[in-house]
Amino acid sequence: MEGSPRKVGYTSSARWKHVQEIIEEIEGPLRELPKALLTPDAAERLPRRVTDGLWRLRHAALSGGLTTSAIRLRAWPILLSTYVHSSEVAAQTAAAARRGVGAGIGIGAELRDEQQVAKDVARCLWEANGRVLGDHERESKRAALTDVLLTAIAALGEDKVYYYQGLHDVGAGLVVGLPETRKSTMTGMTPACAAMVALLSARLAPYCTQGLEVTLAAMDKVMELVGAAAPALHAYLTNAGVPAVFCMPWLLSLFAHNIDDSEVVFRLWDACFATHPAFVLYLAATLVIDAEDELMALGDDMASLHHRLSHLLADGRLSQASVDGVILRALQLAHAFPPRELLADTDTFPHAFTAWPERWAGSPPAHLTELGALQAEMPPPLRAMRPASGTRAAMVVVGLTTIAAIVASWFLQSE
Amino acid sequence: YTVVLIGDSAVGKSNLLSRFTRDEFSLESKSTIGVEFATRSISTDDGKVLKAQIWDTAGQERYRAITSAYYRGAVGALLVYDISKYETFSNVERWLKELRDHAENHIEVMLVGNKSDLRHLRVVMTEDAEAFAQENGISFIETSALDASNVEEAFSSILTKIYEKVSRKSMNSDAAGSGKTKPMANNASKVIVVDNENDDAAPAKKKKCC
């Protein structure tokens, strides 16, 4: 039993308690703060305990994940700053709601993308949380998904947000991951819907543009990262003429289209939501780089390379056991080739996608940048662990330390 | 040979492909994002094995910028509509124009009315589609990926037509036309062995060959 992940890592209840404590610390103050204080320009005025808490929450989200739907329901809105985004769009939402748009039942004027949304919604949510959904439950989840998509589009404005196939996979993940159907008093929307608005405003902003150009540019950036970290592999793929389109669904759906195990998807989302909006590019590049040997063994045939690349995530190849390693390597890649450099040469991407840290969160507390202090920041189960107690434990400690160091330095660089 | 599957969203392109390459059909279908692809070989009457790379494209209009890049290398296209959704048939003309704009001139096009099992919901008449195909000089077939009817026929018919066209061309002249198609065939011949997906298909066609 000693070697099992459950023993050496956080036990889920200890982890749950740790993350919950962080949330308790900041959720209250965040709620009490007047909305004016949550605007991007007021970042510096946020109380220290709130910004500190945010950093610890990000740290937890990156190192081991947020583990349960109850925690994500509270943590994702904080990580995504849904309060900020929804306050910006609250007026439009209200107007849209009055017209009946987004009710998901076709009252009022029909949105441009409504038919496409309907076609895609009808082809997802067959399963959730590892089990096949019954007809009734599926229909109610699909109705919620339609509502999430249409409300978010209406709230942000049809002229700004263009629905794309794949966004429904993100929405389906949100509906499953944030199953609260009541509207939050802070955002005036369900948590899933507020999260969608926040995602469309920053992390998905490159993909919901009218044309495909920004999406293609993002795909190129993935290949650029592969080239920077694994030049031989990059040259090999380029010579074979492999188009970057294999990673298109990864980026567009934040991996939800390609991974069946929702817990793995949510682990990736925990990490994505806790970091730079461009982190998804690093995850995608890491997956390709991880497969280097396998790909190089395939020969220079474009078709088989493309096929293998598109199936890198299929059939449970990325599991709950391996996902932490991928996140860690992606962080290392982001440390070596930081987003500000990766995205520097182009003004193709929306500002909200390239900007980090989200300014309202302020800068990281100084003590988080020191390694020694960092270990003191770790939750008790991890601090108590000695590397000698097993290689896996050592890996976890090294991993967490690296994550913390990388994240901290990364944030400092950006300031 | 490279063949593309095009047509409106949710007409059953992906299921046609999985029916043909893996003999699988899924009621729990998923939208295609971008382009996906699979391969399979069939044998002709004169014993030749034809290897096909089939690219399956997303139906949503915004993806055309990327999917049209795949028309260029294609020697065949299956233009799919849903016999139970009239709109998908009225859009066929637009898809045809897409092909004319982006594909090579001699691309072999076949109009495919899918979901023929939905008899009670049919809104596109066979004769109308037939007439349309004739007017535009393309071939036509009705299929059902669900009950597998005509799927094999659709793919093998288009592949055979391409084969005949190509061999006629290479007999006639060794110049421009064949120069373009030959490397493609070479490409495709390397594909076959690699994928799991072909494992089901491979033994069947080997038997046929012998």
TrEMBL record, chain A:
UniProt-listed GO biological process terms: endoplasmic reticulum to Golgi vesicle-mediated transport
Molecular-function GO terms, alphabetical: GTPase activator activity
Protein name listed in UniProt: TBC1 domain family member 20
TM region positions: 393-412
Keyword Transmembrane applies: yes
Keywords associated with the record: GTPase activation, Membrane, Transmembrane, Transmembrane helix
- A single GO cellular-component term on record: endoplasmic reticulum membrane
**Gene3D superfamilies xref list:** 1.10.8.1310, Ypt/Rab-GAP domain of gyp1p, domain 3
Q: Which residues form the Rab-GAP TBC domain?
A: 66-276
**Gene source species:** Thecamonas trahens ATCC 50062
The answer on whether this UniProt entry bears the keyword Transmembrane helix reads: yes
Enumerate the Pfam families for this protein: RabGAP-TBC
UniProtKB/TrEMBL annotation, chain B:
Report the leader peptide range.
Answer: none
The family line of this record is: Belongs to the small GTPase superfamily. Rab family.
A Gene Ontology molecular function term for this protein is: GTPase activity
PROSITE patterns reported for this sequence = RAB, RAS, RHO
Coarse class of the protein's main subcellular location: membrane
Q: Which key words are in the record?
A: GTP-binding, Lipoprotein, Membrane, Nucleotide-binding, Prenylation
* One Gene Ontology cellular component annotation held by this UniProt entry: endomembrane system
Query: What's the source species for this entry?
Result: Thecamonas trahens ATCC 50062
Intracellular or extracellular location(s): Endomembrane system
Q: What is this protein called?
A: Ras-like protein YPTC6
- Please give, as recorded in its UniProt entry, the membrane topology of this protein: Lipid-anchor
Q: Which domain of life is it from?
A: Eukaryota
Residue ranges annotated as coiled coil are: none
Q: Which NCBIfam families does the record match to this protein?
A: small_GTP
